[in-house]
Amino acid sequence: MKRIAWVVLGWILLMPSVQADVQRFTVVGNGVIFALPEPTGWKMDTESAKNNNLPVVYYPTGQTWSNAPAVMYVNSSINDCHTAFEKFISNDLAEFKSNNPKIVIKEGGTMTVDGKKVIIKLFSGDKYGNSEAVAYLDNTDGAFITITLTSRTRPLFDDALPVFDELVANFQFVGNAVTCNRKLPSFAERVALAKRAEQQKAIGSYLYKEMFPAIGSNMSELMKSCLAKANASVDKFTIVADVKEPGQFDGIDFQPRTNTASCFANGLASLKLPNTKLCQCGSIPVVLDMTITP
């Protein structure tokens, strides 16, 4: 792993850099972070369906979310800690049938993707004439995830089904932003989540091409002022935080609880960060491993 260094008054502040994943793009959804590719011939869009509370949608290149006759989208629903994966699916199927009594539901297969059990259901005969495929991904400890293909006509559905299969097969789980009881993860869990998140292409690019270059000098000045305080600790420390729109640190925590770590963490809250432009529906976890070396 590469490292980025800032020099302050003879001290070197070291923070990790990463080799970004070049095949997938990171998406921050409702309670969960995941990564997916952009299939050939399809557009990946994290903006057009924000009003529908969808973190990412797909449609054929040259079309739009609003006019494409065949689209795909990803959604997530935070578990209540009491609903089993199979129950979540059966509840969803019951809702489908309630809204569309004549709908036909068939099995579409079962697989394991990135350690997550996936069950696919195929739907046809709804009142609008749509055909759909829904992949249900088991993430009982956090948010259940669904990947959906919907088409206005059966021929277009059949043409898009291999693209849907490709998208599902290349799903990558990054981590839960909250647990099923909606509590924040522990400090150690947040560190692990942030370190896995930064390996994703979009997050890694934002952190090491935009955020750190933009605030590096400010961080150096901040550390300089913290180290100038009486009895300032020079022990290494770790900070976890979330980057939220429109560009600020939130949920800052640190360990061990030294005076320098406390000073630095307090100062981070006032820094202005570049907009993430990844997704308007969540936050990006960040970890800073700070080592002060004379």
Task: Using brief descriptors, characterize the structure shown.
alpha+beta; 15 strands; 5 helices; Protein Transport Mog1p, Chain A; 2 domains; 294 residues; 7-stranded antiparallel sheet; 5-stranded antiparallel sheet; disordered N terminus; 27% helix
Strand order of the biggest β-sheet = 5-6-7-11-10-9-8
* CATH H level, superfamily name of the largest domain: Mog1/PsbP, alpha/beta/alpha sandwich
Named CATH architecture of the largest domain:
3-Layer(aba) Sandwich
CA radius of gyration is 22 Å
> Structural class per helix/strand content?
alpha+beta
CATH class of the largest domain: Alpha Beta
CATH fold-type name of the largest domain? Protein Transport Mog1p, Chain A
Straight-line distance between termini = 22 Å
Instruction: Show unreliable segments.
Output: 1-22
* Whole-number total of structural domains: 2
Strand content: 35-45%
Tally of contiguous helical segments: 5
* Shape type: elongated
Averaged pLDDT, please? 81
Quaternary state of this entry equals single chain
Largest sheet: 7 strands, antiparallel
Helix content: 25-40%
Task: Report the order of strands and helices.
Answer: EEEEEEEHEEEEHEHHEEHE
